[in-house]
Recover the amino acids of this structure.
């Protein structure tokens, strides 16, 4: 089976994805594309004339597969294996969530810029309520609702568009135009995550980080988050896709290796791999600072789930990407159903409670910050942010999220001691680690 790979904005296929009787797959760029100003579809798939191996191609394209009910139904209906990446993309490749599409050879391109005045149909309040209720209760869309851009992830999500008058909309039938937002609705047991994620992203933004701050929404008693897509440009009534990839794709890691604890020799999402990746980005020093700050602030917020698919790179019309805004910042340690293990180790520590001063120093040294450079970064970049975080967190306590404020306070206290920050922190109630997460004592 052969599929043509398209990149939105390019008027011809940029490459070919194919599968073989052995079960292996490969990807190769077309020579015509390589002879122009070729933008790689991934840092793990740089422009070259020879085909990429099964492991290389599979790692990138398997990350395009949605993890939703639509994909499960397709696999069952067609009798496909989950490992049949090309077979699944034969059916769903027109709807990949980003600027990439995978179509049968000879098929015309389907993705195009969107016209907000002509290409979308507004959803009624009843439509929105039905979608949010189904996502909360079943983590899937109502049967009659087609997701225009199937999204990866374990939470119930749908890609949609916000029109200039504020109404929510989906593309008209057979229009493969971009969405502008993602609606995320946690399941019934995790509805509290809506406020916690909104608060965590707001705190990140308030600390000067480039973070996507969602809007809290509610319909028919169901709460969700409306998230502005960072891989879109809206100019007047025109919506354009930007190419992006997550860290798993950029590092050549399949989705199952998005945590360091699941890594294999030579294929691991760890500090060394990220440091090497950042050195290949536009303005590496700035990207390094952003990643390190995000990592330490995530520790303070109790977000242990910042895995490889929760970090992304953005291609702004250049072959060299930049680090994308932070997203999916959720204090998972407030939910005892999550593991307390870190997405990637800090030094040798696999859990927050196990981190030592030497682990912190080793982690920063991996990114080239040791000695005086480490101390300056701590004093100039981290210390004032932690002091502001302690103050900002008073607002979430006033908004009824005392548990989150207590979690932040306990984490700041520990990081204050580990880094020798000498911060003056507010007193909070104690949290005690139990099971997979934190509970109030």
């Amino acid at each position: 089976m052969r599929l043509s790979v398209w990149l939105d904005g390019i008027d011809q296929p940029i490459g070919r994805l194919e599968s073989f009787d052995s079960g292996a797959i490969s990807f190769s760029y077309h020579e015509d594309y390589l002879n122009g100003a070729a933008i790689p579809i991934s840092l793990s798939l740089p422009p070259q004339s020879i085909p990429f191996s099964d492991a290389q191609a599979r790692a990138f394209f398997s990350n395009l597969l949605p993890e939703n009910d639509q994909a499960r139904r397709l696999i069952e209906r067609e009798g496909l294996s989950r490992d049949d990446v090309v077979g699944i993309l034969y059916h769903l490749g027109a709807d990949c969530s980003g600027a990439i599409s995978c179509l049968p050879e000879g098929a015309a391109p389907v993705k195009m810029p969107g016209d907000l005045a002509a290409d979308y149909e507004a959803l009624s309040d009843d439509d929105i309520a039905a979608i949010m209720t189904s996502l909360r209760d079943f983590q899937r869309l109502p049967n009659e609702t087609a997701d225009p851009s199937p999204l990866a992830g374990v939470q119930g999500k749908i890609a949609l568009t916000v029109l200039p008058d504020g109404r929510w909309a989906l593309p008209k039938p057979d229009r493969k135009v971009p969405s502008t937002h993602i609606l995320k609705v946690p399941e019934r047991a995790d509805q509290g995550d809506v406020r916690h994620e909104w608060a965590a992203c707001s705190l990140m933004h308030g600390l000067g980080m480039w973070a996507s701050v969602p809007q809290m929404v509610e319909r028919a008693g169901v709460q969700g988050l409306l998230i502005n897509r960072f891989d879109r440009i809206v100019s007047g009534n025109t919506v354009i896709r930007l190419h992006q990839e997550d860290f798993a794709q950029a590092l050549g890691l399949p989705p199952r290796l998005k945590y360091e604890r699941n890594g294999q020799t030579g294929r691991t999402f760890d500090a060394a791999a990220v440091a090497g990746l950042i050195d290949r980005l536009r303005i590496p020093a700035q990207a390094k600072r952003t990643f390190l700050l995000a990592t330490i602030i995530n520790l303070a917020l109790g977000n242990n789930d910042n895995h490889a698919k929760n970090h992304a790179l953005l291609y702004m019309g250049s072959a060299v990407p930049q680090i994308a805004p932070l997203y999916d910042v959720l204090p998972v340690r407030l939910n005892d159903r999550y593991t307390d293990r870190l997405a990637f180790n800090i030094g040798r520590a696999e859990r927050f409670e196990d981190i030592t001063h030497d682990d912190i120093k080793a982690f920063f040294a991996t990114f080239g910050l040791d000695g005086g450079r480490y101390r300056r970064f701590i004093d100039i970049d981290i210390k004032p942010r932690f002091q502001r975080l302690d103050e900002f967190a008073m607002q979430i306590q006033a908004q009824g999220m005392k548990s989150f404020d207590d979690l932040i306070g306990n984490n700041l206290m520990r990081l204050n001691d580990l880094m020798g920050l000498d911060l003056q922190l507010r007193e909070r109630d104690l949290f005690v680690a139990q099971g997979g997460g934190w509970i109030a004592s």
Observations:
- The CA atoms of residues 215 and 346 lie 32 Å apart.
